[in-house]
Amino acid sequence: MRLKFPLMAIVLEIAMIVLFALFVEYEMDQTTPQQVNITTSTDMGKFLELYPLFQDVHVMIFVGFGFLMTFLKKYGFSSVGINLLIAALGLQWGTVVQGILHSQGQKITIGIKNMINADFSTATVLISFGAVLGKTSPTQMLIMTIIEIAVFAGNEYLVGEIFKASDIGASMTIHAFGAYFGLAVAGILYRSALRRGHKNEESTYYSDLFAMIGTLFLWMFWPSFNSAIAEPGDKQSRAIVNTYFSLVACVVTAFAFSSLVERRGKLNMPLFTTKLGIHDTCGVHNLHGLPGVVGGLAGIAAVALGASNTSVAMQAAALCSSIGTAVVGGLITGT
Amino acid sequence: MRLKFPLMAIVLEIAMIVLFALFVEYEMDQTTPQQVNITTSTDMGKFLELYPLFQDVHVMIFVGFGFLMTFLKKYGFSSVGINLLIAALGLQWGTVVQGILHSQGQKITIGIKNMINADFSTATVLISFGAVLGKTSPTQMLIMTIIEIAVFAGNEYLVGEIFKASDIGASMTIHAFGAYFGLAVAGILYRSALRRGHKNEESTYYSDLFAMIGTLFLWMFWPSFNSAIAEPGDKQSRAIVNTYFSLVACVVTAFAFSSLVERRGKLNMPLFTTKLGIHDTCGVHNLHGLPGVVGGLAGIAAVALGASNTSVAMQAAALCSSIGTAVVGGLITGT
Amino acid sequence: MRLKFPLMAIVLEIAMIVLFALFVEYEMDQTTPQQVNITTSTDMGKFLELYPLFQDVHVMIFVGFGFLMTFLKKYGFSSVGINLLIAALGLQWGTVVQGILHSQGQKITIGIKNMINADFSTATVLISFGAVLGKTSPTQMLIMTIIEIAVFAGNEYLVGEIFKASDIGASMTIHAFGAYFGLAVAGILYRSALRRGHKNEESTYYSDLFAMIGTLFLWMFWPSFNSAIAEPGDKQSRAIVNTYFSLVACVVTAFAFSSLVERRGKLNMPLFTTKLGIHDTCGVHNLHGLPGVVGGLAGIAAVALGASNTSVAMQAAALCSSIGTAVVGGLITGT
User: Fold this and answer.
1) CA-CA 20 to 30 A from B265: which of A133, A333, B85, C147?
2) What are the CB-based long-range contacts (under 8 Å, 24+) for B98-105?
């Protein structure tokens, strides 16, 4: 029984190495020397240019998501550790699956964009992890990582390549997908004994401070997340500016509504546990699911209005999103 | 009563959105297509080039200042939270006020430099926050943020544009200004009952470690802070090199003097509480006020000496600054 | 007696300032104006291009190494503090010693590469610090910093310039050197009373979480460490890609073997204390010494096999390295 986890982990890692040996190449490997050189010089310039954005996303994945979940007083250490394990496996698997789908029979050439996309695919599992934290074993998490990233890559290929839908900020393919996948798994694992919460579902003063480290790094580097794979130049800097101002507008309104909803008027990090018969440890429904859906709708609205100044539209959308989330969350919590 | 904070926060956020809609444009909006395109291609290259420096400053504002103030055992969580609130509001307000002053009647075009400058304006309030931490309500902090940033932007415009004074490291406009503004507010809020300190003004082992996270991120990214808006090329890299070597020289001398002043010869983070009849929670007088003034004087001295090698001058200045701060701080503490 | 540390620190800092005044110049100082300008424009472009990688390495040195050693419940705060002191002194001394060796009688011109190399020289002392943590005074650490960096710079000059050996990842000159230097010092300081461990050699729940902050920042930014001074373009991005995939492969196998070795099958951060008659507080033998030697051997093997795809070779090497470390560590611990 205690051999199950190490054996599965080693078998999966050997499988990854075999897959890399079969399918993966450097961006540099020259099959047609003269032609490739041109692409190369541009791509290599881009490598170091996008590398700081990649590292921001990387910090979000490992420090951001890792410490976000330390608020549970008994699961702090294991949440950071399992977050690291999931992400490390997911990065390799995401590189392979996404690469196979997008390379159309050719070898996968690894560059900075693949590395950023691999981080994105991992983000999906880490969002879902928030819904099942403390209810799953490391072995179950390995299986969930393999399945969810395969489904995510397929879904993202469908949305982006077949339907040609634009979803740069990935509000649908990453946030909504990750949140509802996690809630589905939590629904399956649901035991009625958890209806009134679990005694370990508590936070302490210091665990909250550790969670703030995660929250802040996720929050600060979100502009990098939303812009890392955008078209260079104009669109990329707009993605940065828009995300930046949406985030700050969100903070002010979130504090306002948190204080309004909270009985004693105190400031609290809003974390409304939904009671839909599904036990959602980290509140991913409110954190990623609803804003993901609202983000999608806001995008449609912004395009419909032909918004010349999307920054303002985004700030307004963020305001609405916060209000919507707070009201829905508040209503659900109230009952 | 408990509606005061949420209502004020929402009203301020709506005001920000209205101000953005009225005054703010993207750096890209083409009024005179052919002319702007040239500026644009250069500016966009600069956007991604300066973006890592912006993110360093951003980490200083949210993680640096946020965790710096967690050393107070009872205010750790709320200091991180209110730091986030102040900065999020301040960023928007700073963008608008600084933009209006510098754009001379035109629309404000948002680029990476505006975002860095908005972070700077926020830094002023966060320095002042150090002097009043634990003595003010969130509502009072919202008011202080609005007033102080308006005064800061006016003062900086006066110093930089009217007096044409060079103050790249911002030792006067940010550090000295922020420190003495905060002390002035603390002086107004001062209650004689606080003369002997407050029982909550204590730190614990873990709260000190959290404060070290803030301290280190502030310390490491200071070269980015001092160079982010410097002229590209020569001057920018000199600002980085000078700040870097000044900082390391400061650490060695600070440890030496801390050990000398401390009774039992132990190493301690120096935090001398001034007793000028003003209760200065975070010791901003010594952290920002004195070094700000000394930094200004050192700058004058360096220019006067026609220093060809300012790096050495800065290391020497840092040494003097530490000695000065320690001696003055020690004398004040001694009485 | 209590004057020993402050006096030594101040004397060392004054010595550094004198050495800088005598030997150091800006990269910009124009001796032959027209010729230098060309170099300058390229070098200055590189300054800002490599600056994000430098900051990643800087975070590894101060947050990474600093918090890595907070797991000891009684030495958390002093380990972060002394880490800061050592690094601040070491950076200045490393700049001077490396500069003198490489500049061949000319003045040392300070650029971004010198700053990165100074961080590297400091890493050596911080690795050694892990072996003697809690057994040395700050004064002893100042002396060790001065001696070890001088020996390191000499050794690195010998390996790189005289023997012309390629060691970009620095598995030998930094990791193996730092580990065995530290163990040698620990061997000298060894007292037989420590044979059964020390009562302060314990960790607590929160100290482990703080140590995870250090571990994660070291782990995430390792690609920057390995690539920062590589040749630009092709080689630099390969160094990033290889380190990245080696690191994720390492995590999965490390978790697997940790769970296998651990009695109750639980996941633990592996830290096998060697029992060679030397008391190795932080397990640097396993963390840096063995992997450093294995990394060297793996490099030789990879070159021998003419590996066209070193990424796979590195993943495989990482797998072997983990297995080797776990098996050797396990055997030693078992006895």
Assistant:
1) C147
2) B98/B153, B98/B156, B99/B23, B99/B24, B100/B23, B101/B153, B101/B154, B101/B157, B101/B161, B102/B157, B102/B161
Domain contains C5: no
- Reported as a single tens digit per residue, the pLDDT across C319-333 is 555 554 444 444 433
Q: Which residues of C touch A55 (CB under 8 A)?
A: 52, 56, 220-221, 224
CA B64, distance to chain mean position in Å, is 10
Q: How far apart are CA C96 and CA B46, in angstroms?
A: 33
C325: domain CATH number? 1.10.3430.10
Token output for B5? 């904070």
Domain that holds residue A281: 46-191+199-334
In the predicted structure, residue C185 carries a pLDDT above the cut 50: yes
Give the mutation candidate from A30, A51, A122 for the C interface (greatest C CB count, under 10 A).
A51
**Domain contains C91:** yes
> Residue A81 to residues A211, A245, B199: CA-CA distances in angstroms?
14, 33, 37
Q: Is residue C317 part of a domain?
A: yes
Share of chain C above pLDDT 90, in %: 15
A25 to C309: CB separation less than 8 angstroms, yes or no: yes
User: What does the DSSP 8-state code read for residue C106?
Assistant: S
Residue C26 forms beta bridges with which residues?
C110
What per-residue confidence (pLDDT) applies to A34? 42
Contacts 24+ apart (CB under 8 A), B96-105: B96/B16, B96/B19, B96/B20, B96/B23, B96/B24, B97/B121, B97/B149, B97/B150, B97/B153, B98/B153, B98/B156, B99/B23, B99/B24, B100/B23, B101/B153, B101/B154, B101/B157, B101/B161, B102/B157, B102/B161
DSSP characters over B194-235: GTT--TT----HHHHHHHHHHHHHHHHTHHHHHHTTSPTTHH
* Lowest-pLDDT choice from B22-26, B99-103, B110-114: B22-26
Return mean pLDDT, chain C.
73
Let me know if residue C236 belongs to a domain.
yes
Q: Do B89 and A252 touch (CB under 8 A)?
A: yes
Write down the pLDDT at residue B56: 93
**Full-model pTM:** 0.80
For residue A255, the model assigns a pLDDT of 81
Query: Residue C267 and residue A78: Cβ atoms within 8 Å?
Result: yes
Look at chain A and report how many structural domains it folds into: 1
Q: Please indicate whether, in this complex, the C-beta atoms of C315 and A85 are within 8 angstroms of each other.
A: no
pLDDT: is A122 or A193 the higher one? A122
Q: Residue B169 in 3-state DSSP?
A: coil
In this prediction, residue C155 carries a pLDDT of: 87
Confidence of residue A73 (pLDDT cuts 50, 70, 90): low
Q: Between chains, do B111 and A208 touch, taking CB under 8 Å as contact?
A: no
Residues 186-205 of chain C with CB under 8 A from chain A are 205
* pLDDT score recorded for residue B294: 52
Nearest-angstrom CA–CA distance, C29 and C40: 10
Q: Which residues of A touch B108 (CB under 8 A)?
A: none
